[in-house]
Design goal:
With about 150 residues, this protein is α+β, with helices and mostly antiparallel strands. It is built from 4 helices and 7 strands, in the order βααβββαβαββ. It starts with 5 loop residues before the first strand and ends in a 7-residue tail after the last strand.
């Protein structure tokens, strides 16, 4: 049985593995976004989102299996490698973010039912909705208050 993933700060040497898992996870989560996980979306991830976020990775058996990007108390992105989904690593990443920042917020596509279900189980509630003008998709703003004595 593999050891639990270790959460640590992202380093520049994690870029290749992080981009690979982001691409594979995004294709599953956002099949309704044209060009998801590649091309211009990948360029923006590499050149804009990764450099401007506080990034954390989960590493299991020497492999990066999850990427968490924080913008203060906002989860800018949480991506778990498809083969690591359902193992609890996503939950641990959210709890790590909560340990750092207390209350949390994030945006998620309405059509991403699996992520919405995950975040609901993690205690997030819908605060508002808007249309993402670039893709004409409904985005939900979810928030979670700081948790007291939560394991």
């Amino acid at each position: 049985m593999p050891k639990p993933a270790k959460i640590r700060r992202y380093t520049a040497t994690d870029e290749g593995a992080s981009m690979d898992l982001w691409s594979r996870a995004s294709l599953i989560a956002h099949p309704f976004i044209p060009g998801e996980g590649q091309g211009e979306r990948a360029r923006k991830m590499r050149e804009i989102y990764l450099p401007h976020a506080e990034n954390w990775v989960a590493e299991s058996d020497g492999r990066v299996v999850a990427l968490l990007g924080l913008l203060d108390a906002e989860i800018g992105g949480l991506f778990v490698a498809p083969e690591a989904q359902g193992t609890g690593v996503g939950r641990r990443m959210v709890e790590h973010a909560a340990a750092l920042h207390g209350s949390l917020s994030l945006d998620v596509y309405e059509k991403n039912a699996r992520a919405r279900s995950f975040y609901a189980r993690m205690g997030f509630v819908e605060e508002s909705r808007r249309v993402d003008e670039e893709y004409d998709e409904v985005m939900l703003r979810l928030t979670r208050p700081a948790q007291e004595n939560r394991a």
